[in-house]
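Please check the following for our workbook:

***
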Amino acid sequence: MELASPRHHWRHTLAAALTSLVALGAIASLQVPELQRIKGDRTFTDDELQQQLTLEASRLELLKRSPAFGYDNLMANWVFLSFVQYFGDEEIRQRTDYSLSPEYFEIVLQRDPRFILAYTFLSTSTSQYAGMPERAIEIMDRNVSRLEPNAPSNSYFVWRQKGIDELLFLGDGETARQSFETAADWAEQSSFPGSDNAAALSRQTAQFLAQNPDSSSAQIAAWMLVLQNAVDERTRQNARDRIEALGGEFVENPDGSSTIRIP
């Protein structure tokens, strides 16, 4: 058997590396955020901001249809970083809105449905900030079918997040109950740390909803999950306010932590 010469092997390796770099460069060029220009210039008029957002929407629409050259996870990460820049620019968002949020996650989760943390940001930005819970749940529905109970091991979290949105933002207690039941089933099959506790809490919330779809206890439990997983202070404060409005009481413990007393 004839062995490849070191020179031939070196050329083959170099060609493969160059091919990878070209692919990465193509993805990166698509991912340079149009909103970068907005971040560097705060003198845009409202009309100019809307024009820039229209361009960003077109860029995201293009990315939905663009090949990733085998680098789907990389594309998902780049788009998520673009979203973080978009979502975190509170000054600009106050002048416009959060309506592009679901467009980022259409791409992120299409490319990487196992990016579990992205589902929290999807719910926060789309259900709470953009006021589009139906769209958030639609995206979750489409991608949770691509997960398995232990692949990844914390995939039960998506069912919990979906149940929260269905209960708190759509008021659909029965569908939320089914989501929490599935979350409990998946958590019981999971090897993820803390999955036993997640299974018990999810099962308890489902039982609350089975007895009373409008249960304030179930809603408090759901808002407790929002509080636990919140990605920003505004969401945390909103969850605290909702818990107290439903009759929950925050009790300070001697160690400085707090416990929520449910009526």
Notes: Residues 1-34 have pLDDT under 50 and may be disordered.
